[in-house]
Amino acid sequence: MFPAPIGGLALPSEFGACILFAALYGLLFPLVLYRVYDRRSRTFLLLGTCLTVVDRTVLFSFRAASTQRANLQLSDGLLKYSQISFGLGAISIANDLVNLLRCLLVNPTYGYGEAGRADEAPMAHTKDSAFAPPREGDVDRPQERRRARRFCFILGMSFLAANVPGIIAGGMFQKKNFGKEHEANRVASLRYASAAVSLFLASIITLAAAWSRKYQPRACHKAINTTFALTFLAGIVGVYRLSVMHHRTPSLDSTLPGTLNSPGAKASFYVLHIVPEYLAIAILLGFNTRKTFGTGAWGDWRGQDDGPKLIAKRKERQEKRAAKKAERTIEKAGAMTSIEKGGVTTSIEKGGVTTSS
To answer: Where is the composition biased (Basic and acidic residues) (predicted)?
Structure first.
């Protein structure tokens, strides 16, 4: 008996559901393109989420086709692809959430004025950020910032403990392995490890956001509530996967009880696995995540605070940028209008009026 594949075999009764979710994910493509195009909402921290949109659109299209074609229905390649994809979808979203959590924890640590290094914060590169800017009296907290960065780095690397077993387990779903007890036990162990680790790490993200709400001045409640919603949705997927992984099947096309091919099992799969993933992705893309988490384009990319030399270079760049912006403003707002009348030229410039004959 081999572990039953999550989602079961693609049966003809699923055709409508597969078409529906292929279309729903396809409808997210314009949002992906808009978030990439619009510089005020562009952030590269959602790369994994955007790739999941592409992956799910392709996967459900193939799954819809396989419900009508027996050769695709029992294809080893499609089986491995679907199991890897279903296993890593929620993990990929949670992985992106770690980068957002880093901004959530780091942004409130910056203080007021030049000594507060507020211009280094990701929110400083986000127009109309949901984070409140530092006010007079807000002190810089570099130690807390350093700990937050180290914590998020370790948390992000820990997701490898969920990704790697999930990929290996998904790749072992082949018809030739269905009669091998050793391979079956190995797949079961790897799947449990992947799902358990991802669920545990999602709970850590939730606790970190709760800590920010309680202990960080200027914590952004909007970003924290969004984090709670996303980890809740990812948690639903993790709990569902853990709850059905004990089911086993004698063969891929078996419809015996416990093979995850029954109508009830199919309904549970779509409601508790696919729908939460879709809602999480829709939240990340549908709302301006850059503004909510104050990420800028690249998030909190610094491994440590800038030293004196880097600060001096940054100030120099900022001064040059400000000077160029001022020149462009003068050219646009104070565009010279020359009126020649009777040999007299009147030039109206920003800040004054001059006449010459």
So the answer is: 316-331
